[in-house]
Design a protein that fits this description.
The chain has 789 residues and is an alpha/beta fold. It has 27 helices and 26 strands. It is 43% helix and 19% strand. The strands form seven sheets. A seven-stranded mixed beta sheet has the order 19-20-18-17-22-25-26. The chain has a five-stranded mixed beta barrel with strand order 1-3-4-5-6.
Length: 789
Amino acid sequence: MSLVNLPIIVEDELFLYPFMITPIFLSDEKNIKALDLAIKDSTSVMVVCSKPSKDGERDFDSIYEFGVVGNVMRRVAMPDGRVKILFQGLNIGKIVMPIDIDPLTAKVQSVNLDDYDINRVKASLGVLKESVKNLSLLNHFFPPDLLRTIDDSNEANRVCDLVCSALHLKKDIAYKFFIEMNLEKKILDIIEYVNTQIETNKLQKEIKTKVTSKIDRANKEYFLKEQLKEIQRELGIDLDKEAQIAQYKNRLKSKQKFMSEDAYKEIDKNITKLSKLHADSAESSMTTSYLDWVLDIPFGNFSTKNLTVKDVQKELDSDHFGLEKPKRRIVEYFGLKELLHSRGLEDNNGAILCFVGPPGIGKTSLANSISNALKRELVRIALGGLEDVNELRGHRRTYIGAMPGRIVQGLIEAKSMNPVVVLDEIDKIARSYKGDPTAVLLEILDPEQNSKFRDYYLNFHIDLSKVIFIATANDASAIPAPLRDRMEFIWLNSYTPQEKFEIAKRYLWPNELKKHGLKSSEVTIKKDALNLLISDYTRESGVRNLRHRIADILRKSALEILNNTTQKVSITTKNLENYLDKKVFEIEIVGNKNEIGIANGLAWTAVGGDVLKIEAIKIKGKGAMQITGQLGDVMKESATIAFSLVKSLIDRGEIKIPKNLIQKDDKDKEKAVYDSYDLHIHVPEGATPKDGPSAGITMTTVIASILSDTPIYSDVAMTGEITLSGKVLPIGGLKEKLIAAYKAGVKRAIIPSKNYDRDLKDIPQQVIDNMDIIPVDTILDVLKIALVK
């Protein structure tokens, strides 16, 4: 077993066990130093108990060598100078070698149980559970929840620890059980102790019954209360417990008018419950943790800044270049809210904004701008890969280590009941046996329901109606349909090279200079070098990688200045490669040579548009067709439709076949060209999965070209789906596709007429000015434009 160096906290009163989450009050200087050391080094800490005869001393002779290794979950400074921590025990540790005494630090080794006979331990465990049930009928040490936990658990060692913690054993007895690594012997020893306690409690109960009958009720209550106070005073715990309860009550009273009645009743019930529990019990620890959480909820705290569209517009324009349509829709959204607020009307606008676009395009930064404009705290909840519904809904308090869901934690973090909450990557939520988080999001994002959202941990309703929820996604189609109905999508499309240049010039370069501690006079970049950086060293729709490459340049520049190699760095096209590793060509430039059987198709991906070359060859055969390139079912069907359509066009004479391609059969009859050859269609790159309903006209053009030996113009690219009758159907993602075509040097782009009429207004002017965009209705229109006459 490996050894680790850990700081050691000495506890005089409590005896801890690995499963416990326990509040500990620290007043000793060495203990506080040990805590600070653990927090500073981000390590675990070992809590050991002082020996009965050594109270107050802090050296290795005065403490036990076995203790509990765990983590500090929370640290709070108390008004009286002490420090309160919430400690979570993880496993048993043994002090192997002392290192220092101020604070106490030592080499610690994890300790595991000896091997044991499972059947014998199981039988012994059943006897122990029965004995505990009998003892619980005679005293108050075992609350119902604890009894249920003990009865339901099959982990023998954990059951032993639960029983020992509830019995409030003396230190020497508790330690004897604690260090026993023979599990069977440990269970038998505890059974013997429990049975002894049963007999003792029976005798005490009999004596108390006889004595109580002789005491007046009022005198008895007075006597017991005074006796309890005196006992607590001797133990030094009365003031702590009473002060803690009083503090909870004061905090609850200050928030009462801002919370619902069911919330007040639930919290007040738990404060009353805590006042009756023994400070050392596990249930006391769980109740304390619950009260710490719920009283941190910022009931009644709201951002008081009035919502103004001008502020939103100003912040969006200041932080983002381009994105005009998304920014206009955001302004409209908040304009409606401002109008309703100014007229004293209820805001029933239930739309939840969802920013959809490729990575690095600015979805999260738009949410940041909204948060800044509204002067509200921003809470980011990453949903990627989330599969446990309790992460959002909260854990039930029956579990050890339970806590509220992320939504409630976000309110506590923001210290406000109306923050801006970003639900990041909502399209990547998972679903498993732990539940479907989508179902919880349906309630959270529904204005009709979220005013009474119920967190399992809180066990009362909480109002989320004032929260502004903003979702982000890369692919809207991956979001479950019921959830899509709750949201209004704002599409963020790819940036053009010119837009990337302006963003880099206005935002990225100045911001990265500041982050790297450099002045604008120390490092400069020429316009041509910045354009080269964008075109040859990044491959993305957004600007995230561009920011990373700028950071690479500035790191090397800072090193040169630090080493006094130079006082000023100027980045040009000639020395740019000295600051970056290698070029990453974004999109391959189309060639100048017209070729047979090679066409440029336009595709949409989650990271923007791309130009796909579709290739075909013919081989002497019998009319079979082979398709490769890891295509999905939709593209395979497009190829099949395209082949059938080309056959039909050849039969009707719409596609002319050269005589040298026409062959004859055994009976000297001319065969159709498509029956004389086998076709092989390939879409590079073969390792990349491809699918989608927009490659139909490209497939048809390639097949028509290869069967008629007619070249295809190299500067033409196309997108559109095809029907068997030859009609060209509209497609999606036109802006990204045309931007990709523009970057690849395409001169003419063929698109469906319906897209031309509907979507051309969304295309950047820079693309429209530099490329001839041609609308088509039928496949014959496509072939007239694409095939060399």
